[in-house]
Amino acid sequence: MLPYHLRLQVSFWCCLVASTLSAQDVVWVQPVDSPLYETHVSSTANQWTPYRDASQRIDLLPPVDFNLEQDTFASEPIADLDPIEPGSSRRKKPSFGRGAPLSMGGFWAPNTPVVNQPANLQMNAQFARVAMPLGIPEEGKPLWLAIAKFGRLELATNAILPDSGEPVPGQFWLVETGVTHIRPLASGSTVGGTFLFGSASDKPFHAGRDLTLMSILFATVPARNQRDDWSFSLFYSPTSQLPYPLPGIAYVWKPDETFEAKIGLPPGIEWRPNDDWEITFSYFPLVNVNAMVRRRLADRLWLFGGYRTDTQIYFLADRLIEKERFYVFDQRAGIGLDQHIGSGFSLEFLASYLFDRELFQGTSFTSGRTDVIEFDPGLGLSLQLLWRR
């Protein structure tokens, strides 16, 4: 019989292939015209109001989660299911990395010395994510999406956790599945939620205390000027930096079709001065920062670079304190290439400089830290395949 970790990988990849084949049936949905939108357009025909239809509003929804597991600057795959009319003059270009119902790839960081221990540490990871509609989307109807996520992180080291005296766990797993519901309203608002169930642990699904349930509730309400929006959200994940419910409220300011800013919590900026440049920034508590610049080099080739923090959080199956979590943290500055290869597929290669790297245990990101291990800065390489329809 195959070892446990191999059986887990084989089972997941079989499910993923089946989901990918089904995802090919994603279709475009005609935007929903609300009475509010129709009245406004008839009175101010030349005013730019791109987000008054459901297709553009969905792009404002929060991501599937706020903690990116993989070494990429990509956002979650939900955004590509935006029902945007092909050829629309008011269509907003999707952000880089968004609009990918399917993504999979790997990451590798070579050996680097562990501080104050005669040991080295090497990291490698594999990840995959898929989002697909449950049924054929219809005009003006609510949308249900099925989501599946898989991640494996290997820490190859002989380092010892200094307080507990235990060796550093060699492997961590993330297995999650769930749904997102998006419901456009006749008033011009959009409401919905995301719920993911799974396990993030060195021994996933080993016990009930190793299970995770991530949830997001969100609503986007048109502002009085019929151009901007108010964004409301409530986020909870037991494997986030702040493991308790976090409310969010932001004013989404869109002065023109090239710029968008979320002023509030969580904040963010997207600026596309022309077809060849994209600049984005986002922040989510506590220290989740993502800043990126993209430049088109050719018709199908983009150069991108930026900075981000990366936090991966797991439950150790044999932990003595139930609320304690295991953290893998670093900061990253990277540069990469995005090559579109046809049929909606693209390859992304990213080289990063990793620094401020540490492992530790704690009841939260900022309190009760034990078993802190620091290791030297080093190189990180990742390759990702995405399908953006």
Structure, briefly:
The chain is 8% helix and 51% strand. With 389 residues, the protein is mostly beta strands. It has one domain (4-387).
Features:
disordered N terminus, 389 residues, mainly beta, globular
Topology, please?
Blueprint: H1 4-23, H2 35-43, H3 54-57, E1 102-113, E2 120-133, E3 143-157, E4 171-184, E5 190-201, E6 211-222, E7 229-236, E8 246-256, E9 259-265, E10 268-274, E11 277-284, E12 288-298, E13 301-314, E14 325-342, E15 345-362, E16 370-375, E17 378-387
Antiparallel strand pairs: 1-2, 1-17, 2-3, 3-4, 4-5, 5-6, 6-7, 7-8, 8-9, 9-10, 10-11, 11-12, 12-13, 13-14, 14-15, 15-16, 15-17
Q: What's the total number of strands?
A: 17
Question: What's the total helix number?
Answer: 3
Q: Provide the low-confidence segments as ranges.
A: 1-98
Radius of gyration: 21 Å
Largest beta sheet: strand ordering: 1-2-3-4-5-6-7-8-9-10-11-12-13-14-15-17
CA-CA gap between termini? 38 Å
Order of helices and strands: HHHEEEEEEEEEEEEEEEEE
Write down the domain tally.
Answer: 1
Largest sheet: 16 strands, antiparallel, barrel
- The pLDDT mean sits at 78
Query: Strand share of the residues?
Result: over 45%
Structural class: mainly beta
